[in-house]
Design a protein that fits this description.
- The protein is of the alpha/beta class.
- The chain has a single domain, classed as Glutaredoxin (3-Layer(aba) Sandwich), CATH 3.40.30.
- Helices cover 34% and strands 28% of the residues.
- The protein is built from five helices and six strands.
- Strands 1, 2, 3, 4, 5 and 6 form a six-stranded mixed sheet that branches.
- The longest helix has 12 residues.
- The two termini are 24 Å apart.
- The relative contact order is 0.24.
Length: 106
């Protein structure tokens, strides 16, 4: 079983963004829907369709500096799970919801 790669630091963010195409999942510990999504990912090799998923957990205190630097998170993320499709290292489209919803933007 593959666990989801969690982005915690600015260095992690810079490293992950060398991968041109992936899905970014933003979660919280208290979110039941987030747990369901993470269970799905663990059973599906940490992928949705052909894309690897990386996550940022808003409840992880070690991620505070990263979240503060990525200002769009505080502006756009009002509901979790929140997904962003990254293509060629650029944010292309974002959605809120479960795996079925994110599949619609791939």
């Amino acid at each position: 079983m593959i666990t989801i790669n969690e982005i915690i630091s600015i260095k992690d963010w810079e490293t992950i963004n060398r991968i041109p195409n992936y899905l970014l999942l933003i979660t919280k510990e208290s979110c039941e829907d987030c747990r369901e999504v993470e269970n799905y990912l663990e059973k599906n090799n940490n992928k949705v369709e052909h894309l690897i998923v990386n996550k940022i957990n808003l409840d992880n205190p070690r991620s505070k500096e990263l979240i503060d630097k990525l200002e769009w998170i505080k502006i756009e993320v009002d509901f979790v799970p929140f997904w962003t499709l990254i293509i060629e290292s650029k944010r292309i489209k974002s959605v809120r919801g479960n795996v079925k919803i994110v599949k619609e933007i791939i």
